[in-house]
Amino acid sequence: LLLGTLGVLALGDPGPLEDVVIDRYYIPKICLREAQMGDFIRYHYNGTFKDGKKFDSSYDRGATVAGVVGVGRLITGMDRGLQGMCVNERRHLIVPPHLGYGSIGVAGLIPPDATLYFDVVMLDIWNKNDKLQVTTLSKPERCNRTVENSDFVRYHYNGTLLDGTPFDSSYSKGSTYDTYVGTGWLIKGMDQGLLGMCAGEKRSIIIPPFLAYGEKGYGTVIPPQASLVFSVLLVDFHNPKDGVFLEHLEVPESCKRRAVTGDFVRYHYNGTLMDGTLFDSSYSRNQTYNTYIGKGYIIPGMDQGLQGVCMGEQRRVVVPPHLAYGENGAGDKIPGSAVLIFDVHIIDFHNPADPVEIETVFRPEGCNVTTRHRDFVRYHYNCSLLDGSRLFSSHDYEKPQEVTLGANKVIEGLNSGLLDMCVGERRVLIIPPHLAHGESGARGVPGSAVLRFEVELISMEEGVPEGYLFIWHGEPPTNLYEQMDLNKDGGIPAEEFSAFIKTQVAEGKGRLMPSSDPEKVIADMFQNQDRNQDGKITPEELKLKSDEDQEKIHEEL
User: Fold this and answer.
1) Closest to 127 in 3D by CA, of 36, 40, 217, 225
2) Out of 23, 49, 75, 180, which one is annotated catalytic?
3) I want to staple 156 with a disulfide (CB 3.0 to 4.6 A). Which of 203, 233, 265, 297 is the partner?
4) What is this structure's pTM?
5) Are residues 362 and 457 in the same domain?
6) What's the total number of domains in the chain?
């Protein structure tokens, strides 16, 4: 009916109006609340006469009008015309004189019996009985903990007035807003609105003025008595009293040993912020992170978080900033006061004092003869890292591995692990890096890697003392040179030397250093005795190893 009345006015003047004429020429699609009697409202308006002449405007003053509607603080026509309005609704109001300034008017501004025309836009509505309005927009599936008073929070936000006018945004500054909750650093509404949030949660928080900036507003961006709307994304939070939080994602059933202070640990990790942003990863470098724990080489939170890990364990370590990089952060990827989450996979660990760990898998019965230093052994092996990564295997070749124990031809830990073995015995050896390939590693072997060997002894031959290529089982012949000089020509060529040594071995009078190539051993013996390298050995050149050793002692004396 009121809209119809406006149409009549356009056609002709029907006479004096009895009530306010309202034209709701813009109504927002969403209207969460309508202004009721006793509500506090903020609005802009232009006031004109029928001929279009302006008599007043809040726009010209650069400030909205704020007041309580329906309680007689406004002219009666405005009190009636503003009720039922939504935020952002626009109305044309025609106020007859008896509902405006009547027969008196306003001196110098509004003549007596003037009909007033108002163009109004509603900007804010609230009531002293209002409460904080919190709406959860999204929430992560996992939420182990929520914000409490005294927590330190990092969050992004967009701040607008109730009509949608933006006044501030952390996104535009390129950094989160960081502060304590419940300690008076925030307006009361935000202190309350952040409580109970999960990291990664998004909320809409509508704050009435008495829980925001009240009658004074804030600077030029927040008017007095303004309701505020914050769209908040909680990035992370912690409490200054927090310690390291551990989550055991996967622990091997067999865990014979756990890491302690002083151990050297090799592990892979993904490092993320609480919102899931990846800031670092050892996987991207295809190389483990290697360090001592409990020694201060890494951030305190990781020093603590790696204590007690098992080999092969997967663990999540949540580190508060005071045990990580603190208020300053690190580089451009870890913000100040950031909580860090490390998803860790332990590859191996050892202690610099560790010996070789030997586990006998099978030992034949009635084993009386075992390997000793300088013995020549043949064995099969499989070598892997502790995470199961295969490195080498003798089964990839046609025959077993051969080595003289103590000849420095294999890593020290393997040499130790092959001692005191019976033929047919099988062992598992765990060899720490200082008895393997050390910090530098080797081709195919990472630096500081603990190695796992599965070994089986195939055969063994008794060795000879270090430095010897041949030893006599008894006393050597007194006329050694004459017996060796088979054709009695005063010189012993390689053929005669080889034939003589082979005869001694065949008759059990002596033995060669065990080797897969006895001919080479004999050739080396001949070369050692042929001191002038003329292809034959003279009586002056032929000397026993024991005689040579005595000469050296005499020279030293």
Assistant:
1) 40
2) 75
3) 233
4) 0.74
5) yes
6) 5
